[in-house]
Design brief:
The complex is a heterotetramer of chains A (220), B (55), C (206) and D (244).
Chain A lengths: L1 H14 L1 H21 L3 H22 L3 H8 L2 H6 L5 H30 L7 H26 L5 H28 L5 H32 L1
Chain C lengths: L1 E10 L2 E11 L4 E5 L6 H8 L7 E5 L5 E4 L11 H11 L5 H9 L15 H15 L3 E5 L7 H16 L3 E5 L9 E4 L13 H4 L3
Helix pairs in contact in C: 2-3, 2-4, 3-4
Chain D lengths: L1 H4 L3 H32 L14 H28 L2 H33 L7 H22 L3 H29 L20 H45 L1
Helix pairs in contact in D: 2-7, 3-4, 3-6, 3-7, 4-5, 4-7, 5-6
Classes of the chains: A mainly alpha (220), B mainly alpha (55), C alpha/beta (206), D mainly alpha (244).
Main location (chain A): membrane
GO biological process, one term (chain A): cytochrome c biosynthetic process
Keywords (chain A): Cell inner membrane, Cell membrane, Cytochrome c-type biogenesis, Membrane, Transmembrane, Transmembrane helix, Transport
Chain lengths: 220, 55, 206, 244
């Protein structure tokens, strides 16, 4: 299991495409918004939480397909499925690798982009915390979408249609934490909801993803 | 006919859209059913014909 | 060692092979023959556990099958040694096996070269090296000698012979004569007849 | 185990062949009676005026939108556990019906809301959950089309349906948390039983609700029969190609 994680991380770093892609997209999105919405600080401040969270979510979405597609094409997925590693374990490790290479960089970059979007100063802590708690759920749910669409033609298009509705609860609670913090309200309630959601997703989704992979590999 | 008051337009619009969608669904389902039945019959006829002179 | 009786496999919902039965004892190999598309790959995937069978049973000792298909699962960005070490760890074997595998498939001078810069033949040898690293008794190989030159085929045959001598078994789907003394099984008689195939959907249909 | 007998395609086709005419006629009758009675013979509401008449389509379609997904959930579970093809095909047949019902519920909800709330679309928890349900239906149907091998498609869509149901429920409560609702209380709270709608409106409403349910049964039977035939056709064609 550890070997798979190290291998995936090494591949992501060597290939370089991995987390760079997600991060670049997040940066571009955050810079585009003011062009569209206008530079007035108060307008930006009010939409900053939503923009940052939606940006993080879409950046995650972008790199989901790579989780299984590369291993599927060169047959490694078949070999791993017939190896002693349980499929659920493989999916969990791959989601963790995706989180480390894509989720974490987003969490680090978010405050900088928050500055650009004139995010209220007291909500930076909450922003970091909510993203830290929320992005693992995005990776695990996203891995499920990737597992379902592995090997399908036009899988990329399908992944967004399948996964985005699943992201709604995480987005609602995540953005709400930052918005309430900005308005000086108590943000602990949505934060706990977000944490509960993530823990639930991390516990359950690998099994659903493994079932989907098993079905997918069987068909090919 | 009955007087629908000032919201007549909304009510009629709602009914038209809904009935339109539902009848469309029904029509599509019936059309698809008929075509599939015909295609299947044709395929089976082909199989039948091939089996009689084939084997 | 490996026991199949009355196995039927399906591809895309249609049964392609049925009534396949054979026994593969330790120490010998079985070559599967049959024209393309008859279902060799489907059968091998079923034996490797990647695919359920339509009916019939496949008995093999637990955790004893190593599968290798056309796509050999080699990561282009990783070097030969990193690829083999990864698979060694996945199968829970020490890295000493890695050196043995590199020796056996004479990849010594390639160990630190990323797989991307290797020829198809060398990559194939690395794929077969992976088999050695799994230390599994039953090798299930799908066209293992594709894109191998004469010398490499001979090398591969020696490796298989050594594996058989060591008490292992090999089930190989190939068209090339590997020079290994092994029975051959032609799958043509097991081809599912066109009009009576037991497609699980169709069987109880009409 | 008599119930599972009907999962066998041949028996299902025989049974559904007999049932279909009755359910179709029943559905037509009930819907006509319910809608016509509700549309022509009920007074206007003192506050909402004649827009209350939209209730006869909005409530039944909203109810069906949710029930169809529950039906798909059950059939998906049956497919995953007992591998009955008809059950998976029934789920595939039901999806478009559910999607149309959700669409109707959204359209009538928006139009009905317009005079009251001043806008066609209000980000109200209930309307938003229906929008999310609509997206789930789209994803489900798109997944069926995207997979070539129908057995794999049945597996993938069943897993998708299970996961989708969990997240639909989560979204239901998340949206309520996220924005206080403009939607009025449930007009026919089946759970609590008391009615916020007085009798003169309730009877035609009940009839149309039953009418929509029977309409769904008729449609899903028709569409499942088509799916069974389509699957049989695909098998025949594949076999022809194989033996040619």
């Amino acid at each position: 299991m550890k070997a798979l994680l190290l291998r995936d991380l090494r591949l992501a770093i060597r290939a370089g495409g991995g987390f760079g892609l997600g991060l670049a997209f997040f940066l571009i999105l955050a810079t585009l918004i003011p062009f569209g919405v206008g530079p007035q600080p108060d307008v930006l401040a009010s939409i900053a939480p939503g923009v940052l969270w939606v940006g993080a979510l879409l950046s995650c979405l972008l790199s989901l397909e790579r989780i299984f597609a590369l291993d599927f094409e060169d047959g490694a997925l078949d070999l791993m499925a017939s190896s002693p590693l349980p499929l659920e374990g493989i999916v969990a490790v791959k989601s963790l690798a995706h989180w480390l290479t894509t989720g974490l960089p987003l969490v680090v970059a978010a405050p900088l982009l928050g500055l650009m979007l004139n995010l209220p100063s007291q909500s930076y802590g909450w922003l970091l915390m909510s993203l830290l708690i929320g992005t693992p759920a995005l990776s695990v749910i996203g891995a499920f979408g990737a597992a379902i669409t592995v090997g399908l033609k036009r899988g990329g298009l399908l992944i967004s249609l399948l996964v985005l509705p699943l992201y709604v609860p995480t987005l609602i609670f995540g953005a709400d934490v930052v918005r309430r913090a900005g308005q000086g309200l108590d943000a602990s309630v949505p934060a706990f909801m977000l944490a509960g959601l993530t823990l639930g997703a991390v516990a359950i989704m690998p099994f659903a993803s493994a079932a989907a992979l098993r079905a997918g590999l069987k068909g090919s | 006919m009955i007087d629908l008051g000032k919201y007549a337009a909304d009510v009629v619009l709602a009914y038209c859209i809904s009935l339109g969608l539902i009848l469309g669904l029904i029509g599509l389902s019936i059309y698809r059913a008929k075509r599939m039945k015909a295609d299947l019959a044709a395929a089976e006829a082909r199989i039948e014909a091939r089996q009689n002179n084939g084997t | 060692m490996l026991e199949l009786n009355d196995v039927a496999v399906a591809r895309g919902g249609i049964t392609v092979l049925e009534g396949v039965s054979f026994h593969l004892a330790a120490g010998n190999a079985l070559i599967l023959r049959g024209e393309n598309g008859i279902g060799k790959t489907t059968l091998l995937r079923a034996i490797a556990g990647l695919q359920p069978t339509v009916n019939g049973t496949i008995q093999a000792p637990e955790e004893s099958i190593a599968f290798a298909s056309h796509a050999d699962g080699i990561k282009a960005q990783l070097t030969v040694r990193e690829n083999l070490e990864f698979w060694a760890e996945v199968y829970g074997n020490a890295s000493s096996d890695v050196d043995a595998a590199i020796q056996a498939m004479n990849l010594m001078e390639l160990t630190d070269r990323p797989a991307a810069q290797m020829s198809a033949g060398q990559k194939r040898r690395l794929g077969l090296g992976r088999l050695l690293v799994t230390a599994r008794l039953i090798w299930v190989l799908d066209e293992p000698t594709v894109s191998l030159d004469r010398a490499s085929v001979a090398l591969f045959s020696d490796v298989v012979r050594a594996h058989l001598a060591g008490g292992g078994a090999a089930l190989i789907a190939t068209h090339i004569d590997l020079g290994i003394e092994a029975e051959t099984l032609d799958l043509t008689p097991f081809k599912a007849k066109a009009d009576v195939t037991a497609d699980t959907f169709d069987g109880d249909y009409w | 185990m008599s119930l599972w007998e009907y999962a066998n395609p041949r028996k299902f086709m025989a049974l559904s062949g007999k049932l279909l005419p009755w359910t179709a006629v029943g559905a037509a009758l009930l819907c006509c009676v319910g809608l016509i009675w509700g549309f022509f013979f009920t007074p206007d509401d003192f506050r909402m005026g004649s827009t209350v008449k939209i209730i006869y389509i909005h409530v039944p379609s909203a109810m069906m939108a949710i029930n169809v997904w529950v039906m798909m959930l059950v059939t998906s579970l049956i497919w995953l556990i007992r591998r009955h093809h008809v059950s998976a095909l029934a789920a595939k047949a039901a999806a478009p019906i559910g999607m149309v019902m959700t669409l109707v519920a959204l359209a009538t909800g928006a139009i009905w809301g317009n005079p009251m709330w001043g806008t066609y679309w209000a980000w109200d928890p209930r309307l938003t959950s229906f929008l999310i349900l609509f997206l789930f239906y789209l994803g489900y149907m798109a997944l069926w089309e995207a997979v070539e091998d129908k057995d794999t498609a049945a597996d993938l869509t069943s897993v998708m349906c299970l996961v989708g149901s969990v997240f639909a429920l989560l979204s239901r409560y998340a949206t309520r948390f996220w924005n206080q609702g403009l939607h009025q209380g449930t007009s026919v709270p089946v759970a609590t039983g008391e009615r916020t709608v007085d009798d003169v409106f309730f009877i035609p409403l009940a009839i149309s609700m039953v009418g929509f349910a029977v309409l769904f049964v008729a449609l899903v039977l028709l569409r499942t029969r088509t799916e069974v035939r389509a699957r049989r056709l695909a098998v025949l064609n594949a076999r022809e190609r194989m033996s040619a």
